[in-house]
Specification:
The chain is built from eight helices and eight strands, in the order H-H-H-H-H-E-H-E-H-H-E-E-E-E-E-E. It is an alpha+beta fold. The strands form three sheets. The protein has a four-stranded antiparallel sheet with strand order 4-5-6-7. A two-stranded antiparallel ribbon has the order 1-2. A two-stranded antiparallel sheet has the order 3-8.
Amino acid sequence: MRRGERVRAGWATVGSLIVVLLLGGTPTAVAVPPPPPNPSDAELGGSRQDADAKAGEVGRLTNQLAEAESKLGELQAEVELKMEDANKARVDMETAQDEASAAQRDADSAGAEADAAASEVEKARADLDRFVGASYQQGSRIGSVSAYIGSDSPKDLLARAQLLDAVGGSQVDALEGMQRAQTGKSNKDAEARKKLEVAREKQAAAERAKGTADAAQNEAVQAQQDQAAANGRLESEKADVERRLFEAQSRVSGLEGQRQRYEDWQAQKRAEEEEQARQAAMAQPSPGGSKNNGSAGKPSAPSGPAGRTVEAVIARAMSQLGVVYAWGGGNQSGPTRGIRDGGVADAHGDYRKIGFDCSGLMIYAFAGVKALPHYSGYQYEAGRKVPLAQMRRGDMLFWGRGGGRIHHVALYLGNGQMIEAPHSGSVVKVSPVRYGGIMPYATRLIG
């Protein structure tokens, strides 16, 4: 309920109570109230001055309350932004861990190849050792003149030279192969170490980013809690002043003012009944077979595989109406258990709930179209950008802060309506599109 609606409801409630009291405690029988007493001029003048003073005080407190509520909204957006920062850090950390695992596999493969090369080198070295031993037994060795002098004839000399050249060349090839294998092994080891180092750097950076986001989020949560407490105090003080103002105005206006306030209450009540009827109509089964019954449990998901049409995407999203919000929850198969955030989500026990957060609901809705990452900032870049003036049913809408940092996403239904998983303590629901802080483009994945 907005501030103005709360004020009108408060006025109407007090007015109705006065009417009930004037009617002898019977709220069902509305009669014309009796005329007010006839006060003196001095009494009327004093009452008017008192009422004017109370009205000024109510105006001052109303302005303070409006400022406090505006600040509270900004802090809520900041909390959502920090929570999405944590989501981004979590996705980046998972990517870094995958890269680290791949680098480790590369290192293991390079080590196996190096071990095989080393085995070949050892075999070549053993062959060389045997050849050297045999050369000594014949009174010769590679590169020694005695291997030639010990020959008995020119023919023997030529044969021995050819043998030494052949065997020696074979060993030289083996030694060169050993050197190449050792060089290759060193290169592969260096490459594997570099990949591991890069992966560790990425993982460390992701962990630092998440730590920074968590710390900033905790600060925002604390500021929100402090502001909410101040807001509560202002509300209480304002309600007290409004009560005294009503008493002062009653002394001035008499029953005519009371009757006017009672009629205002009736008009407000009719408006509330119309709104309830509208909400009930929205809760009726949609073309996709969904129904918003406000339940916190998980409704039945659409039968069959996820479709690739706009209506199939919307049907999947609408099938989850009423499912509880759980930060970090939701995947292509449906709602999942939330995770800890160290702040608002933990205070609502999201890590114990099975549900969706805003980006998790989009992952589920678009499961048959495209695999989306669990971070609204990456989802904003996942499709074709269209200006908001051209947005249509099935587009994703995004909200952000300074610098284009995304903190929320919803699915546009058309006619100014959207479906979203708004925040901790809420459920998946249909809401009017909010244009405060909305990004200038929608993201389109179909069509």
